[in-house]
Each structure stands twice: as C-alpha cells, then as structure tokens.
C-alpha cells in the first residue's frame, strides 16, 4: 500500500470542500493558501472566474510582519477586508483550502469577521 504525501491529502480534502463551496457575484468565495513562511487569501467569483480582491504576506506592506505567524495572518485578513469593503463586498463563503481550521487560518477568518465580512 502506497502512502500519500501531506500535499496529496490536503488536495483531496480541498476537492471535497470545493464540491460543496462555490462563490457567486453576490457571495464570493474567500480562498486561503498557506505555506510555512507565508499566507495569502483571495476573494473569488467562481461563476465569472475573476479574483475580486486579494492580499498576501508577500506584499511589501506586510512583509515586515511576516506570514508564518498568527500576527501576519491577522494583518493579511485586515488588508483583505479593507479591499473587500472598497469593492462593496460584505458577504462571502470561506474556503479553508483543505487546511485545518486552526492557528493562522482561524486567525485570518476571525479577523475577516471582526472587520465586518459575514460568513
């Protein structure tokens, strides 16, 4: 029996979630991507296939805070919420991307909620 890598297992979890979760123009999807050093999130309208807003710890504004910790994830969440409000987005669906809803992913989600996004 062949063992599956962590990446393969995460992709399988993500595909199960994506079967149920889809973003529309009225309620776009917040897709989270995480690595050991960085975190990023995008607000996506899946029907038109367009990214409406995005934020990442790789950006020059957030690079000093880092993305490999909870504080960096909160900063990314705050910036993404500001960009979403500027585009008039208030309701979203959250897609954790197969990652465990804990630590940085949960901190980003909590910050988005605090900033006024509903999901």
Describe this structure in words.
The chain is built from 3 helices and 4 strands; from the N terminus they run αβββαβα. It has 119 residues and is an alpha+beta fold. The chain has a single domain (22-114), classed as 2-Layer Sandwich (Nucleotidyltransferase, domain 5). The radius of gyration is 14 Å and the shape is globular.
Briefly characterize the structure.
36% of the residues lie in helices and 19% in strands.
Q: Main sheet, how many strands, which sense, barrel?
A: 4 strands, mixed
The order of strands across the largest sheet is: 3-2-1-4
Individual helix count: 3
- The total strand number stands at 4
Total individual domains? 1
Structural class given helices, strands, pairing? alpha+beta
- Distance from N terminus to C terminus (CA atoms, Å) equals 40 Å
Strand residue content: 15-25%
CATH structural architecture: 2-Layer Sandwich
Task: Give keywords.
alpha+beta, 119 residues, Nucleotidyltransferase, domain 5, 3 helices, four-stranded mixed beta sheet
SSE diagram, text form:
Blueprint: H1 6-20, E1 29-34, E2 39-45, E3 50-56, H2 70-86, E4 93-95, H3 104-114
Parallel strand pairs: 1-4
Antiparallel strand pairs: 1-2, 2-3
Helix pairs in contact: 2-3
